[in-house]
Amino acid sequence: MLDPAPSVVRGPTDLLTTIPYVLGYHPQDSVVVVFVAGDGRLTCGLSIGQQAPDEFIIAESSTAAARADAHLACVVGYGPLSDRERIAGISDALNMAVTVAACLLVNDGRYYCLNDGCPCTPEHGAVLDFSSSVIAAEMTLRGRVALPSRDGFASFVEPDPDAQARTAAALSRVPQRLPDAVAVVHTCLDIASAGEQLSDEQAARLAMALSDNDGRSAAWRATTGESWQHDLWLDLARRVPERYAAAPANLAAWNAWRRSEPALAWAALSKAVQGEPDNTMSFLIGLVLTSGIDPATLPWPLRDGTDLEGLLP
Hints:
Blueprint: H1 12-23, E1 30-36, E2 42-49, H2 54-67, E3 72-78, H3 84-94, E4 100-107, E5 110-113, E6 126-127, H4 135-141, H5 161-171, H6 181-193, H7 200-210, H8 213-222, H9 227-239, H10 246-258, H11 262-275, H12 280-291, H13 308-311
Parallel strand pairs: 3-4
Antiparallel strand pairs: 1-2, 1-3, 4-5, 5-6
Helix pairs in contact: 2-3, 5-7, 6-7, 6-8, 9-10, 10-11, 10-12, 11-12
């Protein structure tokens, strides 16, 4: 199947409609900075709470711009109208590190352009009508979501007690050491890629395979940004008993990062760390999530012998 054509942002409304899908949630009381690559792609973004000092916001945004090799940036404040001068000041300071193409303030269903001399909105702002943009429909077709707030991502990885009980029963019938964990992983991936949900027995065998180093490595190498992988790893993380949840949660985090869904990635990674605090995969994925690099610039899977840490800025 052909990938859908990239969305084209044609003005402030399109930009503001896109931002929740870049972050994965609708921002509130925060300063959001999104970055545009040289080819015009909106690659990534960060959201920092409104209460953070201006110097911190500027420093974090400048670092993220450098790591993303950004060509342009857009600064959007989500807060009261009294923040006009503050947001404009942050934009001016950030402009020393990367060209700021747009500076906007969103308040109570309206947006205000803060660029000097820009005539795109009147003094009293313009109504922010998401329905007037095709971006939301395009993002939905790609399987992207925009939750009401960041807190909603915890629900994606909350355990399903009934499913956990069924998987635990199935695990009692699975050998403690599978003869070929890698083969089990690839078989389950084939089932999921065909659009089928794993049975309880298959979920149990995959959970056991992921407890094996070779099986876990094979699953990680095979995990990119596919929608069916998003469904598979989140489903498995919720269905397996908690002692088996770290591996699928890590894989869900990796898939989410490669899909440019950082909020979901952090929620899944948090679940993995809670289940197994010192696991190496969580440490490496955490390094990638904090690196600020564009997933498209990190080749995957890596060639054998490549040091992942050595590729990070």
